[in-house]
Amino acid sequence: MDNTNGAICFAAQVDSATGKGPTDFASGYLMSVASSVWQPPANKASLQPNSSSLTGGKYDITYSPAAATGYMYTEGYYSSVTWYQPKYASSYSGVARYGKDDYVGSYCMQGAGSNSYFGATAASVKLTGALYLAVGVISLGTVLSLAI
Description:
about 150 residues; single chain; mainly beta; 4-stranded antiparallel β-sheet
């Protein structure tokens, strides 16, 4: 994220269907959140994950798991998303390109709509170079991967 292009966020939703519990995964959303909607250190925003979700084939978005999964949030299981970065450009709409000297942060989001709350779960990490990108937050060339 940055204060110009906004943030790329992955939201994992619990299943709210009757008989489901807080450990049941329902779906995931990769979102492009404009800096006018939310930017740190703000702890609240009006954000609806399913209406902010990125779609289309150009990012080759892959979610894991791809479908609702019961009891997923027990015993260290997690949800993740991968996507391809866009080519270098002087400005971006939607997903910006991230690389050396950019920062990656981890935030926990609770709620949806007018009551989305954000809390930092860890300090930001500066992307320092190709080696870090290959084995750290970004893997396999230009594929970004975030996991919660």
